[in-house]
């Protein structure tokens, strides 16, 4: 495996591949002595039991990729935050090795889709040329390109931490799933899909989300602060006497014997289905009659009443003129309008009644001029207001205040809108990435500095349910969170902090200062790393749910050729503490969705979540498993492989040293 980058995501993906999947990893980075995480990555090369090498190159060009062994690599991960640099490296890597599996970090998802199609087409064409030229082996079918976004991957967990506190959410096949802590007495309250974890007894609960022994992050998310989460020594990285189960902390994927005889007040984490998202918006029927709502939005009530009164006056003048002149109603109305606009000849030789009527019409015309000017000004202001961002409406409550609409904030806003959760956004830069989304969806947004007095009050922070401080500045996030806590001490706050030590200190301080407020810690890179590592292993990871300092990964796995799945029933395929089958893909092999995180084109879900324990997994079945990271590694190692054979039971490859002839 080859990883390019020296950021927090590169560090965590390298550690994930080396410690969990037992892979040989080569990291290409600018410097081992400087940079963002160069020294930390260099420390992995010296850790016993890990097969990690490094290649220093200021720009990962062809020479650097060849020195990293790209010609023999199974997968390449590009973790830079620069989309253009990742595209540059991906194109070069595909040209050097058409069979390499690419996992690319990109923010622009549309560009990422185009790049995926381009690189996959290049791999197929290269394979056809090799086979046509008599080569023994073309590009394998799994030489795919996967484009992921770390912020998009972590957004559901950030939203869950803000909206429902300790709940974790997962999106799969258009279905919204959540992991909910319930007592064994109430575990069947919502007919859960399965039990994910058994929480430790209160007297044995020593899990502290605000601390970690090894991992560090330059971009963490927490309430009050966020510290790094899962580590090899505190999670699945270190072996224990009971397989994947730690001696302390939660018991992941417990079996029936683990749940038997426990007190009813013991807590467990269960997987529950919330709702299925609509795959496409319903067709909107055109109204039969024109609506007057636009007229009401353009003009104020006072102006509408004034226009109505002026219309009544004109009709009265026309009626009186008709009665005096004895002309036709149409001619009387025409003469009245001429008098109203002062373009008729003076009636010097007409009867006194018609002269008085002409003067009254002229007076009404003078009153009409400022009224028409008011119509023009109000319509202009209404059009400007319609093009601008709306402000928080009066009486708004139960909403989420989102500070920062940058890279992370934009994805979080998308998730909140998908869940139909009311949002009020605060952003200082009117050209931020999420402003266009907020304007398009008519989200109440304040273009202001959140640190100024009165901004949070204007966002109705007193009546909100949570605050998300997701700007790129630690100082702004901390100041906004402390100000919000002063206004509403019990407010749930999720804060983004880059400095890990600073994050841990702030986390503990806020937890001790506001014990009544919920305190949860989440890390963007920690939540995204399993998805990147799983994609490098050739499996789609639908999501990761953290339980304490451990992580459960949900991935799509083929049953074909895997003795741990094929030919076994769902009950027999369950390995307590390691993995369990949670869903079955019911679509045929030709019609399967490549990305199970989306809904099928027919609008119906293709995953069956309530499987009969006696169902036998057949050749060709694709299942979704919930597994620990080490359990998923063992499950994938037992399956067939198109590449060089792995060491049995570990999934590890032997690679020759590129420096030796």
Automatic annotation (TrEMBL):
GO terms for biological process: potassium ion transport. The chain crosses the membrane at residues 305-324, 356-377. The keyword Lyase does not apply. Keywords: Membrane, Transmembrane, Transmembrane helix. Residues 397-515 form the RCK N-terminal domain. Residues 641-661 have a biased composition (Basic and acidic residues). The keyword Membrane applies. It comes from the Bacteria. Residues 202-221 have a biased composition (Acidic residues). Residues 127-148, 197-260, 635-661 are annotated as: Disordered. This is Potassium transporter TrkA. It comes from Streptomyces bathyalis.
């Amino acid at each position: 495996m080859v990883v390019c980058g020296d950021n927090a995501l590169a560090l965590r993906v390298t550690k994930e591949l080396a410690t969990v999947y037992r892979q040989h990893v080569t990291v290409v980075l600018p410097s081992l002595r400087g940079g963002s995480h160069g020294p930390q990555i260099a420390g992995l090369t010296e850790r016993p039991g890990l097969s990690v090498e490094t290649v220093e190159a200021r720009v990962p060009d062809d020479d650097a990729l060849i020195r990293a062994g790209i010609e023999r690599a199974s997968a390449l991960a590009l973790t830079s935050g620069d989309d253009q640099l990742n595209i540059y490296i991906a194109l070069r890597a595909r040209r050097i090795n058409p069979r390499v599996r690419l996992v690319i970090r990109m923010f622009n998802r549309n560009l990422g889709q185009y790049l995926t199609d381009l690189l996959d087409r290049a791999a197929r064409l290269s394979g056809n040329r090799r086979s046509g030229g008599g080569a023994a082996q073309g590009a394998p079918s799994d030489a795919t390109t996967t484009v992921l976004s770390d912020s998009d991957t972590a957004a559901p967990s950030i939203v869950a931490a803000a909206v429902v506190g300790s709940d974790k959410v997962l999106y799969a096949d258009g279905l919204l799933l959540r992991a909910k802590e319930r007592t064994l007495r109430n575990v069947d309250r919502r007919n859960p899909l399965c039990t994910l974890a058994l929480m430790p007894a209160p007297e044995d609960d020593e899990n502290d989300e605000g601390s970690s022994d090894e991992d560090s992050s330059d971009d963490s998310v927490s309430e009050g602060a966020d510290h790094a989460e899962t580590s090899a020594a505190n999670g699945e990285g270190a072996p224990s006497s009971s397989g994947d189960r730690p001696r302390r902390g939660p018991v992941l994927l417990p079996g029936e014997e683990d749940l038997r005889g426990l007190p009813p007040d013991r807590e467990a984490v269960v997987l529950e289905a919330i709702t299925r998202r609509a795959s496409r918006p319903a067709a909107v029927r055109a109204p039969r009659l024109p609506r007057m709502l636009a007229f009401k939005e353009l003009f104020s009530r006072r102006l509408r009443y004034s226009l109505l009164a002026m219309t009544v006056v004109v009709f009265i003048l026309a009626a009186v003129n008709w009665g005096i002149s004895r002309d036709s109603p149409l001619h009387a109305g025409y003469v009245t309008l001429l008098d109203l606009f002062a373009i008729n000849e003076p009636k010097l030789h007409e009867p006194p009644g018609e002269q008085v009527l002409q003067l009254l019409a002229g007076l009404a015309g003078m009153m009409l001029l400022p009224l028409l000017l008011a119509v023009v000004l109000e319509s202009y202001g209404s059009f400007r207001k319609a093009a601008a961002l709306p402000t928080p409406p009066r009486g708004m409550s139960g909403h989420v205040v989102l500070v920062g609409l940058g890279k992370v904030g934009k994805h979080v806003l998308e998730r909140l809108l998908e869940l139909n959760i009311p949002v009020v956004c605060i952003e200082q830069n009117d050209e931020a990435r999420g402003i266009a989304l907020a304007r398009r969806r008519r989200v109440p947004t304040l273009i202001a500095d959140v640190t100024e007095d009165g901004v949070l009050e204007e966002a109705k922070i007193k009546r909100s349910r949570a605050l998300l401080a997701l700007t790129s500045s630690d100082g702004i996030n901390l100041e906004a969170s402390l100000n919000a806590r002063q206004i509403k001490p019990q407010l749930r706050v999720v804060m983004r902090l880059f400095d890990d030590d600073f994050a841990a200190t702030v986390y503990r301080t806020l937890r001790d200062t506001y014990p009544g407020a919920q305190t949860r810690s989440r890390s963007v890179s920690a939540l995204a790393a399993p998805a990147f590592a799983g994609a490098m292993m050739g499996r789609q990871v639908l999501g990761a749910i953290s339980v304490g300092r451990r992580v459960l990964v949900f991935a799509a796995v083929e049953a074909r050729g895997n003795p741990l799945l094929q030919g076994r029933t769902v009950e027999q395929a369950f390995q307590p503490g390691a993995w369990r089958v949670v869903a079955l893909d019911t679509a045929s092999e030709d019609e399967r969705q490549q990305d199970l995180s989306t809904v099928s084109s027919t609008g119906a879900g293709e995953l069956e979540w309530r499987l009969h324990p006696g169902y036998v997994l057949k050749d060709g079945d694709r299942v979704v498993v919930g597994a620990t990271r080490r359990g998923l590694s063992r499950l994938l190692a037992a399956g067939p492989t198109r590449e060089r054979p792995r060491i049995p039971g570990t999934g590890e490859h032997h690679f020759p040293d590129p420096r030796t002839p």
